[in-house]
Amino acid sequence: MLRRLHGLPGVVLALGLTVVAVTGAVLSLQPALDRATVPTVPSGTNVADLAAQVAARHPGIAAIRQRPDGGITVAFDDGDARGVERVDPATGAGLGPYQVSEATRVITNLHRSFLAGDAGRAVAGIGALAMLALSLSGTALLARRLGGAGALLRPIRGTPAQRWHGELGRLAGAGLVLSSFTGLWMSAGTFGLIPEAQGITRVVTASSGAPAPVGTLAALRSVPLTDLRELRFPDPSDPTDIFTLRTAAGETQVDAGTGAALAFAPATTLERINDLVRTLHTGRGAWLLGLLLGLASAAVPVLGATGIILWVRRRAARPRVAANAPAHGADTVILVGSEGNSTWGFAGTLHAALTAAGHRVHIAAMNDVGTAHLAADRLLVLTATYGEGDAPASAKSFLSRLARLEGRPPVAVLGFGDRNFPHFCRFAQEVADALEAKGCPRLLPMKRVDRRSSQEFAQWGRDLGAVLGHDLTLSHVAEPPKSVPLTLAGRELYGEAVGTPVAILRFEAPLDPRTGAPGRLPSFAAGDLVGILPPGDAMPRFYSLASSTRDGMLEICVRLREGGLCSTFLHALAPGGTVNAFIRENPAFRPTAGRAPLILIGAGAGIGPLAGFVRANAEGRPMHLYWGGRSAASDFLYEHELAQHLAERRLTSLATAFSRDAEGGAYVQDRIAADAPRLRELLKQGAQILVCGGRDMAEAVTRAFEPVVRPLGLDLATLKSCGRYVEDVY
Ligand SMILES: Cc1cc2nc3c(=O)[nH]c(=O)nc-3n(C[C@H](O)[C@H](O)[C@H](O)COP(=O)(O)O)c2cc1C
To answer: Which CATH code is given to the segment(s) 318-468?
Structure first.
């Protein structure tokens, strides 16, 4: 529901809202500019003094106004000359005609009405309502993604578009809510939906005597000029007419002859609210707020563009399920829990494979679970996990609905998640537990798929096929990638002598056949993944990148695995040979922004992305590398490059552990335990820990870190949840 409220309406309205927001941002500069140019009203002067000074120059003076920016203007009709003039509040001297520039007028009209009169004004009002709804629903969506309102300030993970949208959204959110709410209020006022202030009715008790000089009128002398909003002069042809003085406190009628206050009407609550709303919307009289609101508005075009990218990607990822069998009569029901839609892609592949195997398969969102679904022969649940181990959007109401339904079909639950999060596939586990508690027989034990691994999904398919009694080949690549050819430019081989051959492979884009110039590499950063398609296999294998596009080559470390199709292919590849590859961003495994120290930990080929982070550290951020291999003589990957980085201060310290060296015989976790005091110091400075390598090593490192962080009152779950302990584990 929230997503529906936010997604499509946002895309449709993006252009119109961008016009309103950008013009609003430009207008927001005005109060600050005015503040610099408009002469300030001196304290100690009163309204009568200024009125006298100006009346001496303009016999036909009609009104003196103090504008919200503090500037004083005078409206006059002297017979031979008429107009509105700016005046110096200290002397009453004229400062030239008051004019709104043509550009300001056009921008204001664009902002208020798209230059289209009342119809445009109504559209702008609806735009304000839409902006309010988008800001509130966006904040709620972000809170849901991050694990609740209390988690709104947590680091945002995801693709660059997701991060920009989320970061800007939370920075600008409060300002946009304020601007759109006040804009909506003012729009409603324009259309008479909010009653306007009713000035007091004219009293008839004026003395009707000869008018006294305005500078002598007591009721005007008693009001400081700083308080003035407007002073309307009496009509000179009407001896009974009076002065009308408006201040923030209300409206006073002043006898032109005696200077006595005849009547006072205090400002109503509604008037005060209207004043406040106008100040909050325009920033007039509150220039700093105006600038902040302007900055928030300036974020709208970027929010619109990234929002459209996210919406298009989400739609593109949604599977077009061909031949979805009706729920009634389906033998197999697939229920999908997804937020970003990638799980729908896996479910679509499963649906197609089961349908091809002769099953009548119905697929639906988990939120739509109903009696018919539980009447099927089997139920397959594929679900992602979000926030703090919570349900994704399409599964929010699944558990509560399930509790109210009858039926206990055999079930298999497949969780999609990311090991870098502290609650890996926790929602899938909750679903499996709830189904078991309901009495649904288990078709397969619950399984977790890490970072959309095609291999783990295919393995689950084989297990499911075995239970169903037929082959089930699930070959699904999360987002069908467009691969590009890459040419092997160089290779270095390590570790053969100790039984762990690891190759550092450097690829370049092939030469452009037309120009002979080097081709362009795709865009990637160290820590991202490259998917490589081994010849004759549609299933990509992923390797962590040790370089970024800026390095001019794509570098990976590949350990030769016994029987491994892709690693065997890559180790046999000769310089000049090509591979088909594509990039998968891995935003969860990146150094945080800023200058806090980084503790990089890896073993074997896991050094790849860590070496990439060090190489990119031209600004000398503190980086401490712990790395484990087998033998300094045989598999010390990047030995010379790391020595160079130490000399250049790209790397602050290096601790190695070689398990097979005669005098060493240590593992990387031993170095961590030995370095506990120093590591604690670094953590106190806000250090982030990045771990890359095999699962066993990562688990040993986790165990070694627990006693390091405990005396600081920290634990790894907390560090992980705020992105200060991240892993890239395989
Ligand atoms: C903001 C955010 C929070 C996440 N939280 C978790 C989590 O707590 N546990 C987990 O295992 N995976 C978590 N993930 C990973 C997703 O579950 C995983 O990427 C999944 O494949 C996404 O599937 P979907 O595209 O169908 O939503 C999170 C991802 C994001 C972007």
So the answer is: 3.40.50.360
Distance 510 CA to ligand 1 centre (A): 36
- The response to whether residue 185 sits with its C-beta less than 6 Å from ligand 1 reads no
Expressed in angstroms and rounded, the spacing between residue 390 Cα and the centre of ligand 1 is 9
- Residue to substitute in 162, 342, 386 for testing ligand 1 pocket (most ligand atoms within 8 angstroms of CB): 386
CA–CA gap between residue 404 and residue 385 (Å, rounded): 23
Domains 318-468 and 484-584 belong to one CATH topology: no
Non-local (6+) Cβ contacts of 63 within 8 A are: 74, 75, 230, 231, 232, 233
Site to probe by mutation for ligand 1, drawn from 153, 334, 385, 720 as the one with most ligand atoms within 8 Å of Cβ, is 385
- To the question of pTM greater than 0.90 for the whole model, the response is no
CA of 480 to the centre of ligand 1 (A): 19
**Ligand 1 centre distance from Cα of residue 157 (Å):** 10
Task: Dump pLDDT digits (tens) for 174-226.
Answer: 999 999 999 999 999 888 888 766 655 655 566 777 889 999 999 999 999 99
Cα separation, 456 vs 416, in Å, equals 10
Among 199, 261, 301, 351, residue whose Cα is nearest residue 48: 261
Cβ(624) to ligand 1 under 6 A?
Answer: no
Q: Is the ipTM of this complex over 0.90?
A: yes
CATH 2.40.30.10 fits 484-584, yes or no: yes
What residue owns the CA closest to ligand 1's atom 6?
A: 386
Options 2.60.40.150, 3.90.1030.10, 3.40.50.80, 1.10.1530.10; CATH for 598-729 is 3.40.50.80
CA distances from 611 to 134, 236, 601, 724 (A): 42, 86, 10, 19
Answer yes or no: is pLDDT of 422 > 80: no
Q: Which three-class secondary structure state does DSSP give residue 322?
A: coil
Q: To 10 degrees, the CA torsion angle through 715, 719, 720, 722?
A: 140
Q: Would you list the domain boundaries of the chain?
A: 2-33+104-196+276-310, 42-88+213-265, 318-468, 484-584, 598-729
Q: Is the CB of 424 under 6 A from ligand 1?
A: yes
Alpha carbon distance 417, 161 (integer Å):
20
pLDDT of 327 over the 90 cut: yes
Beta bridge partners of 383: 337, 415
